[in-house]
Amino acid sequence: MVKTDIESFKEFVHKHPELIKEVKKNKRPWKEVYQDWIVLGEEHESWNQYAKDKDKNNKQEDRAKSKSEKIRTELTVGDIVAGLSKLQITDVQKYLSQFGSLMDAVQELLQQFNNQSDRSNQLPENRMNDYPSYRD
């Protein structure tokens, strides 16, 4: 049977009970923890502070640091691509849609300012046409 992301995340949370405490204290929402878990991965060093066995994880962290320092010292394109592949497409689409809506609103606001400045730059005789005239 293939594990889903949710099942894997639940196992991860049970291995890191300090995360549960942090969420219960309203320091972080579950959605943020889940998104960080997706992007950073389960083995990222930032999770060590939340693990059951902190001493064990500190030793693992030291080993992982020395190993990673030997292997590489900088982020590779493959790491970036791997991180991007873990992003939820629906979340990205939602954020892009919100950004597009924001840009539309800004454009509309700028157009309103341009229309107002165009009217104020008109010569007085041309602006007189903007008001209705009453003739007997």
List keywords for this structure.
single chain; 136 residues; mainly alpha; elongated
Structure description:
The protein contains 7 helices and no strands. By secondary structure, the chain is mainly alpha-helical. The mean pLDDT is 77.
Regions with pLDDT < 50 over 5+ consecutive residues? none
Structural class: mainly alpha
Count up the helices: 7
Largest sheet: none
Could you give the count of β-strands? 0
Q: Summarize the helix and strand pattern as letters.
A: HHHHHHH
Output mean pLDDT.
77
Q: How big a fraction of the residues is strand?
A: under 5%
Q: What portion of residues is helical?
A: 55-70%
Radius of gyration: 28 Å
Distance between the termini: 90 Å
What is the overall shape? Answer: elongated
Give a quick precis of the structure.
By secondary structure, the protein is mainly α. Helix content is 68%, strand content 0%.
Topology record:
Blueprint: H1 5-15, H2 17-24, H3 30-40, H4 54-71, H5 77-85, H6 89-120, H7 124-127
